[in-house]
Amino acid sequence: MKIEPDVNYADLYAKQVSKNPKAFPSSIKKAVKRYKKWKKRDDIWWDNLKANEALDFMQTFVRHVNGELAGQLLELELWQMFGFAQLYGWQHLNAKGDECRVISEVYWQVPKKNGKT
């Protein structure tokens, strides 16, 4: 999927989860709830351009290294886009007044057979 600059992929996934909450685990529902709550805050903001630049970089330059897909470009699924967009999209001003990411570390635990390959 080509990353379109004007599309907010985090919003797309959040809407998908909100439409059918029974299909998603509580951890995903909590992440979407936090995303929606953060969108209302004044001290941080969502930079869709930065989020999409990161997604585009991954799909343009990152390749699979093992298995059947070795050598092929990575194609992110929507749930993966949501996670990476969270990491790069949320911005705030640090103590020096410079714009920087709100989230600087991520831990993902993904169950088997969930599109990790």
TrEMBL record:
<dbReference type="InterPro" id="IPR005021">
    <property type="entry name" value="Terminase_largesu-like"/>
</dbReference>
<protein>
    <submittedName>
        <fullName>Terminase large subunit</fullName>
    </submittedName>
</protein>
